[in-house]
Amino acid sequence: MSFLEPARLWFLLVVPVLVGVYVLLQYRKSHYAIRFTTMALLDTVAPRRINWRQHVAVGLALLTLAGTIVLFAKPSKEVRVPIDVSTPVTVVLTIDVSLSMKATDVSPDRITAAKDAAKEFLDTLPVGFQVGLVAFAGEATVEVAPTTDQVALRSAIDGLLLAERTATGEGIYTALGVVKQARSISGATPNQQAPAFVVLLSDGARTVGRSQADAAREAGSQNVPVYTVALGTPQGVIETDGGVVNVPVEIEELQEVADLSGGQAFVAGTPADLLSAYEAVSGDLVYATERRDATSDYIPLLLLTLFVSTVAGLFVASRWP
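Above: the chain's sequence. Below: its structure in token form.
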């Protein structure tokens, strides 16, 4: 459990102090009673049997006090809240266009499935979101700067062409450059950076360029989480001049990118999986996680403890048998 005002928990030190005071009073009561010589009077002042009702009542009272102090410290919880679309939000679609994306293990082939899903992904985003498009193979290029122009984005996605090699790290660094430019245009200060996300779709491990792990760490330092989608299956193959080449999907590196940047990783082995992954990503982009006061969630429990404590106190005070 986390708290919005954790320093207030220091008041819990009052509880063991009160326990000590109570024990001391019980000891003094017993010590004082032995001064009486009349056994009948001694039994009246300090009965031999333990007054367990009194101890239970005191214990419940202390428990109620401790619970009140805990609530005074404002326990908190994480809640998902809609992102304020009045603040510019940038999403950079970063798509792998290496030759392995022509594998047909995902129908009709990986790149076509990626294009179709990317266009459907655009439909799930709020109107105010700006979307940029980066493509990478042996190098990375900015196909479309962040825009709300769906027609331009769809046209650029349809026009993506395959090329040799896979520079995953370069793709992430280029996407970060796009985010930096978009933030500078928005005029946001470093402490008021507009939300930005990278959605990276790829099927294989990096073969050239800078490390994707270093790029992911840089994304995390810039508060730009990278959501990765691993597209393909272990059975993927492509035909080349040299024959059939195995191009199994590589999941581990994309998982690492997501972990290091603060994003999430998804695996898509079918077009339906790919659409589901994009829908999940869209849901995360539209909502942000905030820590909110959860005190009211625990009020019923405190009231129950207070009620039981009060009943116990009345029970002892009335000297019920």
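Residues 83-269 form a domain with the Rossmann fold fold (CATH 3.40.50.410).
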